[in-house]
Amino acid sequence: MGVGLLGLSGWFITASAAAGMAGLGILFNVFAPSAMVRFLALGRTASRYGERVLTHDATLRALSDLRIRLLEGLLTRPHRELEKLRANAFLNRVTADIDALDGALLRLVLPALAGWTVIALTGLLLWWLVHPSVALVVGLGYLILPTLVFLIGQRIARKPSRQVEAAMMACRTRLIDLVAGRDDLTMYGRLEAMAAHVHGAIVRHSHATRRLDRIQRRTGLGLDLIGAALTAAALGLGVRLVQTGEISAAQAAIGVFAALALAETVAPVRRALAEIGGMVQAARRVLPAVSAQVPEGGAEGVPGAAVLEVRGVGYRRGGSGAALFAPVDLSVAPGETLALAGSSGSGKSTLLLLAAGALEPSEGGVSWGGRPVGAWSQDSLGRSIALVPQRHALIAGSVAENLRLAAPEASDETLWQALEQVCLAGTIRGRGGLALGLGFRGAGLSGGEARRLVLARALLRRPQLLLLDEPTEGLDDATARAVMAGIRAALPEAAILMAAHRAAELSCADRCLQLTPATA
Fold first, then answer.
1. pLDDT for 199-217, tens place per residue?
2. How far apart are CA 27 and CA 246, in angstroms?
């Protein structure tokens, strides 16, 4: 619409002037061109609005799907890798990467496709309306020269663009750490040092941004010179063709103004250069996770009397490091509680992860319900096995919202029953009930209270196999025994395997297995 508007306007003005000089102005039809000019002007506005609505809607839908596929792909990573993720840094990274890919679509891919299409169509129209030579100069000039500028410019801009993106990420992460840990930093006298780290990231970002701005300005100058040169070439060709009588002056004006209007199609190149480094880096990080094959959930059910069998299982860090413990043999039947004992670092938590199917053993095998644990779908394992690790995972929200993560349809009565079973109901009632609001990561509860809330959530799952990692840490002996008794009462038929180090936990187990070092 824009190119057509400027080309038609140029033809209209030139043709009107020529008719006036020839004394034929009274015979010149101004109404049809005027109507077309108005149509193109209004159509350009409406088309620009429609283009924004459609492309942004399509892009947001694509990015929404990309976010889901990215998070699903992360589930395929080894459990140990997921454990190392820092929530703030990870979410900051994912947000920045998705925003960068948003820019790749809206400021690189779509403008490039639209620009090439408009240039090609304009070249065809100039071939028909003006002259083939004008069409070739304008069309090929705009297709080839700005593309070369972009290819050269992106090689130059890629490094400073990456530096801008990296400095911004460092600034965000350090600023979040500064705000989140300001109390501890103040207490240890490190607040000013951390603020200096944030300032350093800001300074690096500023330096890299200035370098990138210089590249953008030079690229913009190159594009402006290309536009001016092609417009001048169209004017020169038009004048020569008018002098030879091959075209009229009005036709020559179409070529000149069309060449002038096409400069708008290559304008996005400047902004794309500023973001190309971040786009490439984001794509390299996101695509492996997006392309990961996510196991499909199945509807298979685990037998009601399923037994956990661990036969000759060993585990080596990284698959080839030193063995963490001597080969383990154990079985846990429905209604039975087995405690794993051993010194800190002996592999109790690792054995729980192996039983849950989160890790693969380096030797031996783990079976659940008569099948290797890895043969079950994630959906089946999720319905039949619940793991409560040492580090609790609570969200900002009410107590009820935290509990209903495990049982979305559970009634208030069911939630209270679960809280009673872990000796937490009285505390919650005295502090506002199920509507009690918790802060980030469950802030507002003590360590022991948070742990019991996580245990209550696990009970709501009604698992056939319950894996507990030091479940009563932070509780006094009497409360610890009461909690363990409540867990067994809530799940009388469940097989329970727990890592234990306290007498209160060991006394509640039917059997105890001592883990020994691999060298013993």
1. 999 999 899 889 888 888 8
2. 24
Q: Label residue 380 exposed, middle or buried (CB < 10 Å: 0-12, 13-18, 19+).
A: buried
Which of 488, 510, 492, 464 shows the shortest CA–CA distance to 338?
A: 510
Buried b (16+ CB within 10 A) or exposed e, 272-294: bbbbbbbbbbbeeebeebbeeee
How many angstroms separate the Cα of 128 from the Cα of each of 121, 131, 136, 247, 503? Answer: 11, 7, 12, 12, 92
- Distance (Å, whole) CA 360 – CA 40: 65
Nearest-angstrom CA–CA distance, 441 and 88: 12
Tokens of 434: 């199920």
Dump pLDDT digits (tens) for 402-458: 999 988 888 999 999 999 999 999 989 888 889 888 887 778 888 888 889 999 999
Cα angle vertex 139, ends 135, 144, to 5°? 145
CB atoms within 10 A of CB 191: 16
The H-or-E segment that residue 255 falls in is helix 249-261
What pTM was estimated for this model as a whole? 0.63
Q: Angle 431-432-436 (CA atoms, 0-180°, nearest 5)? A: 95
3-state helix, strand, coil in the chain (%, to 5): 65, 10, 25
